[in-house]
Design brief:
mainly beta, 8-stranded antiparallel sheet, 43% strand, elongated
Length: 184
């Protein structure tokens, strides 16, 4: 797992401290929730709060805190360790080229990390296809989206030859039309 902050360069003693914490955790086995008690870094920043991830196939998770610092985690697994504070999902990359970008989260889009608590973030696979149908005069407008458990929308990038979802419109058992959706 690789993490970095774009707005703050790690100091040598911060890196040494993190290495020591990782060494202690590795020798003690998996950390329990009571082991999430935290140590203070040199700048007063709190470390070792856990964020549990519920979802699969996540290749890259990018979070932004309330101060605008961005943290990217490759292959996050079941949980990630972050300093205490409020975070929101900025971007999620899944296997197969599926991506989610959160542009303007509402007040419910924040996750609070604090000592002794392990909040759960639901994202990634499995994705659920959703189709919205709207009548516009004699036409039907069909909007297709792939969403995760929290309702975040995903699009598939980079594979122009991917099989596109197909649809058929019928009335009273008679097919009126069919086609396929376009991504994006």
């Amino acid at each position: 797992m690789r993490q970095f902050h774009k707005t703050r360069k790690p100091r040598a003693r911060d890196a040494a401290f993190v290495a020591l914490v990782l060494l202690v955790l590795a020798s003690a086995g998996a950390a329990s929730e009571t082991d999430e008690a935290v140590a203070e870094l040199a700048g007063g920043e709190t470390a070792a709060c856990r964020l549990r991830i519920e979802g699969r196939a996540i290749e890259r998770l990018t979070l932004a805190d309330e101060n605008g610092r961005v943290t990217a985690v490759d292959q996050p697994g079941d949980s990630v360790s972050l300093p205490a504070g409020k975070y929101r999902v900025q971007e999620v990359g899944l296997t197969g080229g599926f991506q989610c970008s959160a542009y303007a989260p509402g007040p419910d889009g924040w996750v609070q990390l604090a000592q002794g608590r392990t909040p759960v973030l639901k994202l990634g696979a499995p994705l659920t296809p959703q189709v919205r149908v709207k009548r516009v005069g004699r036409l039907l407008r069909l909007d297709y989206e792939l969403v995760d458990a929290a309702g975040r929308k995903y699009v598939q990038r980079g594979d122009e030859n991917a099989v596109r979802p197909k649809f058929t419109v019928s009335k009273d058992g008679q097919t009126l039309g069919s086609g396929s959706f376009e991504y994006g």
